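Whiteboard transcription, Tuesday session. T.W. wrote the structure tokens on the left side:
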């Protein structure tokens, strides 16, 4: 039996997850994510997989984030006809993500063509794939629930365990049984955290031989998820008093639903008065529908608080979903108190911008950031509490209050990841391979894990193959 592991994406970086487990010459691809970055670099990395589609035996998808599923339509377009295994919720979320990506690419192509025409240049860029390819990819996804092992190849079985990262997220536990020998490989996908609302905590798994582990926050510690509640309540109460507004740029998937869930919970428990909430992003609205149809992914708390009482955690009187741009713009004139949750994009694009234009000079408005804001983005400038910011080419005085909650991260920090590792049976463990992290975070994490007794921990590098059999 010959098993080798190598990476085609997310080695010493945090995007474009693509890992290959080669078992007796047959290739199993774990995740097929898009590389996100500048257009030229992303294009170069995304158009070339590094493996021919017809060499792949099966694809395993850990969760529906773009950097894990975003290139599946290109893979099927290039001729991959086999199965893509994922949990049912991941199938739905990745469909939404892939269709959205196809749409964005089509729009980009129109825009770039116009720009090129203006400059008299020839236009050569084409989208990686279109909606049709995204539908083909979705059609190849075979839904497997958590803890329902299936054979995905000769002597190769796959079982999903909860990763606690986003709805449907899973760790892939791959068991290879051949010639009387058994090798167990655990791919963490993105490892989540204990105590996140809605979804379950990262699960315990049977004793693995090898762990392919993400390391995004290998050098950081987060606030506790529970800390988010307290701060949200404080901001909500203040906003009710001043009849102001809360603007929250938030990821459409998971973060928006967590916010809705927390607000609903706090209103239900009498912690805050009822405030109208508007989810102002078509993507977030669609994602919330997906959350509603996957109660099999919910944790105990949501059952206790809502399901047991026949309540829909993502639907209550005060919650509204805007559809048209007109409805979105009408919110500007709507009196407070009011909460607007709009698509993130680090405030650089989308509906959040016109909300900012209308409210950033109002001291009764609170702009609450709950996610990563890259340098040189409007979101970062606001988070840094700059007193003047430029939106749509116009300068505005920032009088709105700015608040920040760090507790929403979907990735385990180094202590959380180590605590989860510590809960596993390590009697068979031979090696931990670190992927999906910046080099600095990975080096720190490797050092920390070695201190914890995981002597054989390696940082996966491109072009290197790691043997998983003697
Ligand atoms: Zn993820």
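and on the right, the sequence the group agreed on:
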């Amino acid at each position: 039996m010959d098993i080798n592991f190598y990476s085609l994406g997310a080695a010493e970086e945090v995007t474009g997850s693509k890992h290959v487990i080669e078992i007796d010459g047959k290739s199993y691809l774990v995740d097929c994510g898009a590389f996100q970055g500048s257009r030229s670099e992303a294009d170069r990395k995304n158009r070339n997989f590094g493996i021919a589609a017809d060499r792949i035996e099966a694809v395993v998808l850990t969760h529906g984030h773009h950097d894990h599923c975003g290139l599946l339509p290109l893979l099927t377009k290039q001729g991959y006809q086999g199965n893509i295994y994922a949990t049912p919720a991941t199938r739905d979320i990745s469909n939404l993500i892939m269709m959205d990506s196809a749409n964005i690419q089509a729009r980009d192509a129109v825009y770039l063509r116009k720009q090129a025409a203006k400059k008299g240049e020839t236009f050569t860029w084409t989208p990686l794939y279109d909606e049709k390819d995204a539908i083909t990819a979705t059609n190849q996804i075979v839904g497997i629930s958590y803890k329902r092992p299936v054979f995905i190849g000769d002597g190769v079985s796959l079982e999903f365990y909860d990763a606690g990262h986003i709805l449907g997220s899973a760790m892939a536990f791959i068991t290879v049984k051949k010639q009387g020998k058994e090798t167990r490989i655990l791919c963490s996908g993105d490892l989540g955290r204990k105590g996140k609302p809605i979804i379950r905590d990262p699960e315990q798994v049977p004793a693995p031989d090898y762990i392919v582990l993400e390391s995004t926050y290998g050098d950081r510690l987060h606030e506790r998820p529970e800390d988010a509640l307290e701060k949200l309540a404080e901001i909500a109460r203040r906003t009710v008093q001043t009849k102001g507004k809360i603007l929250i740029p938030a990821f459409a998937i998971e973060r928006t639903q967590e916010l809705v869930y927390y607000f609903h919970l706090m209103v239900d428990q009498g912690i805050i008065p009822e405030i109208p909430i508007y989810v102002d992003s078509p993507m977030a609205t669609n994602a919330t529908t997906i959350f509603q149809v996957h109660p099999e992914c919910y944790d105990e708390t949501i059952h206790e608080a809502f399901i047991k009482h026949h309540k829909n955690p993502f639907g209550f009187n005060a919650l509204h979903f805007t559809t048209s741009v007109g409805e979105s713009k009408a919110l500007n004139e709507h009196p407070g108190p009011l909460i607007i949750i709009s698509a993130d994009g680090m405030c650089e694009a989308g509906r959040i911008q016109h909300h900012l234009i209308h409210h950033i000079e109002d001291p009764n408005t609170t702009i609450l950031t709950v996610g990563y804001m890259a340098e040189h983005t409007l979101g970062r400038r606001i988070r840094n509490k700059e007193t003047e910011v430029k939106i749509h080419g116009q300068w505005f005085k920032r009088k709105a209050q700015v608040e920040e909650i760090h507790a929403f991260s979907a990735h385990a920090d180094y202590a959380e990841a180590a605590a989860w590792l510590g809960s596993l049976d390590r009697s068979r463990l031979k090696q931990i391979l670190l992927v999906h992290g910046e080099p600095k975070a990975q080096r720190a994490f490797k050092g920390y894990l070695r201190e914890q007794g995981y002597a054989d921990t390696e940082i996966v590098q491109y072009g290197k193959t790691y043997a998983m059999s003697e």
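Someone added at the bottom: The two ends are 9 Å apart (CA to CA).
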